[in-house]
Design goal:
The structure is a homodimer of 347-residue chains.
Chain A: E1 15-20, H1 29-37, E2 42-47, H2 62-67, E3 72-75, H3 86-97, E4 101-104, H4 114-123, E5 127-129, E6 148-154, H5 161-174, E7 178-182, H6 186-192, H7 206-213, E8 221-225, H8 237-247, E9 251-257, H9 274-285, E10 293-300, H10 306-320, E11 324-325, H11 333-343
Parallel strand pairs in A: 1-2, 1-3, 3-4, 4-5, 6-8, 6-9, 7-8, 9-10, 10-11
Helix pairs in contact in A: 1-6, 3-4, 7-8
């Protein structure tokens, strides 16, 4: 169950996924993520003629979606070029007029588009611009909170921290853990229905936002927190450190992409080796949780063949001494085995 | 000379320092800081009857200040309780109507007080709410920039990072260095006439803001950058790390308060020892500047007697092997000696 103190900020399901008229199926990445991780939340898709994406959901008009009980239309694609096409706006105004909320992870704030803002007001609906925090946060207190927390961290940006966290939540729930994914980026928030886009929080409040996101809970409850950035990324390490301190993780899972040669988006920076990444995160994380441990490594091995990938993971595991998995290829079960053993009082 | 690309964001001097009617001289800390570090910028003070502070400047009305060539009235005190008293607002509206700009480091945004905003518009004047960045920044690039940079860092918040940076700028200029203090907090910005309140920058852009603040420059030019927070503070370490990465310092000066038992504002955290603070800052700073070095330590020894302070500094210096000074008691000359030796090609 979500633990948010301000539940009016949760996006209400079920969803109609809006994919517009994208020219390539890959552009529907956000919609696919929601469909994959929260199938029970997705009632249908709204596609324009010629749309190249298919989420394997019933095609629905706004009216049909309302009849099916949909509460929110979720923008699952980014418009080419950035500006919202008129056809999108007309569809979204119709959605508001028919009683749906809108959720969007776009850079463009839908709340700043006058037609949408006015329609939302007129029809009493909500527009969630999930990239921009709607609330303010307290400064981090550093006080230790009851409950367990796992944070995914990375050797770089875009190495699978969100995917790994969601895979861990799924596997942990399947084994009876009381576990909740906590989202820190726009796609994660649309999947979870809530969360905080931590990189959009004012710097003073990063660790406070992470504390808010994973508040005090039952002693055996796990928050599985989506990491952001990397301590090794010259643009974003501050975000990663604030999140690490505020999350107070008991358990870290380090994420990596096999074969990545350069830190994303900057010139002249190499990803660290995985042991270095583990050591620095553990060392800095001790400030707010002296018991922090790395419990496993999740590697995106998509660039490798099957055999090569298995050899890579086995070699890594031999070096690091922790379960090393590919969340897509092998699943994260062996990391969860470790959490089970650690939580078993007889072991 | 300030290096800002957008010079219209510089606060124009000279200043009239507004201290209102504070009940204790200590409340005029900001005004005193400006008076102390930028005496040439301060033409006068505006005090209400009964004001307990005296900046040792001519008392002036708004009209007199305008006649003396003042360009900006600077709020040098915080109002008791937070809200601006009516008498302040009347005075500030008068200042705008007489052609002065206003600069303020208060939490309350003067631009959000309708009387002030409207008067500024009517009279074509500017209101600088320096706690809130007026511009947006790019994401940090991590690209190495020509020019030298020194950053003050701390074992905790409020240990003298701004004072030390200003003392270094003064001493360096006196010895012929081309050096500019670069402010990262509201008091520093009012002193320098510009800068960025980095803790108010959106997390994604912390290191980018630090890059903007200390851009490419002549090879022998020094930006002396005011540090914020501490890597050891559970609320603010993310800000400190983003600033460290964006500043790309060649030289670090670690600041500390002798005798401090607890990290400021949080429960259960102890300041690190100074060597630990040096090591972590150097180790993390290497990401964006592999040549980073700690060049000295600045300690606030106000809690110690003279003899005890000198013993403390000598003992520290013996342990650390770097110049350890109290910027107030001993000055920072010995740290600048080290910079001179390091920059002398014959040494």
């Amino acid at each position: 169950m979500p633990q948010y103190e301000e539940c009016e900020q949760m996006i209400e399901g079920p969803y109609l996924l809006f994919v517009g008229g994208v020219s390539h199926a890959l552009y529907a990445k956000t919609a696919n993520g929601i469909r994959y991780w929260r199938p029970e939340m997705c009632k249908g898709q709204l596609r324009f003629p010629g749309c190249a994406a298919d989420l394997d959901l019933p095609d629905m008009s706004i009216i049909q979606a309302v009849q099916e009980g949909v509460k929110t239309i979720v923008i699952g694609v980014a418009p080419a070029g950035g500006a919202l096409p008129d056809a999108w706006i007309a569809t979204l105004v119709e959605a508001l007029s028919q009683g749906l909320d809108i959720a969007s992870g776009l850079h463009t704030r839908l709340n700043e588009i006058s037609e949408l803002r006015e329609a939302a007001k007129e029809y009493g609906r909500r527009i969630f611009d999930v990239r921009y925090p709607a609330q303010s946060f307290a400064v981090g207190s550093g006080e230790k909170r009851v409950g367990k927390r796992l944070l995914t961290v990375g050797t770089d940006c875009a190495v699978g921290k969100m995917y790994t966290a969601l895979a861990l939540e799924k596997e942990m729930r399947a084994r009876g853990f009381d576990a909740d994914f906590q989202a820190t980026g726009q796609t994660g928030i649309l999947i979870a229905g809530g969360g905080v886009s931590v990189d959009a929080v004012v710097s003073d409040f990063i660790s406070g936002a992470a504390e808010w996101l994973s508040p005090v809970n039952e002693a055996d409850h796990w928050d599985v927190i989506e990491g952001q950035g990397s301590l090794f990324h010259p643009s974003y390490a501050g975000v990663s450190l604030g999140l690490l301190h505020g999350a107070q993780p008991d358990a870290l899972v380090v994420c990596h992409e096999a074969g990545r040669q350069n830190i994303a988006g900057v010139a002249g920076y190499k990803p660290p080796d995985i042991q270095t990444c583990i050591d620095l995160n553990v060392s800095l994380g001790r400030l707010t949780n002296p018991d922090i441990k790395c419990v496993g490594v999740g590697v995106n091995t998509a660039s490798l063949g099957d055999e090569e990938a298995m050899r890579y993971l086995a070699g890594l595991e031999n070096t690091i001494g922790l379960a090393c998995v590919d969340p897509v290829r092998t699943g994260v079960g062996r990391i969860v085995d470790h959490l089970e053993e650690a939580s078993d009082p007889c072991s």
